[in-house]
Structure of L-threonylcarbamoyladenylate synthase:
Amino acid sequence: MAKYFDVHPDNPQPRTIGAVADSIRNGALVAYPTDSCYALGSRLGSRDGISRIRAIRDLDDRHHFTLMCQNFAQLGQLVHIDNDVFRAVKAATPGAYTFILPGTKEVPRQLLHPKKKTVGVRIPDHVVTQALLAELGEPLLSSTLLLPDEAEPLTQGWEIKERLDHQVDAVLDSGECGTEPTTVVDFSSGAPEIVRRGAGDTSRFE
């Protein structure tokens, strides 16, 4: 059964955040809130985490995983980014955007798109997510908590606990955080290509 952690949305309790971070370090798969919707997260190099996320969401090997970063220092270690793209991404973060870029050697090979060698990265604008990333001290391997054949992601922590009780190890609940996934912008060719229109304003990339 999944452990259930309830935290304040504006002032998350450090002890609770620490307990969730410890569970991730020890290999746990967690459901956690972001500034767009709930996500599944595990430690960056966890093969078990990758396979469990693929199983829950019924994903193939062409799916772009997202590396949730606390700041640009982390993001810059994971992807190749030139000056023009850097300025565009910097202006839109933190926020509800995922950017697809060529991965560096710091990214485990199994996370990269098999042909393009790209990966998704983002910097969230959410107090609880930022607190978790700060405590964890490293990027979090993530994917939107959108179940197969469902139109919208799950939005309530208690419902996630109820439905995924035997598929995830922990649920971090800070209240409802919306149903719209991030806007996804592919910068792998240098010019922005909007792959998915979501919570982030797309006008700056059009």
Strands lie at 3-6, 30-32, 39-43, 66-68, 97-102, 118-122, 140-144, 170-173, 183-186, 193-196. The first strand starts at residue 3 and ends at 6. The mean pLDDT is 94. The CA atoms of residues 93 and 123 lie 6 Å apart.
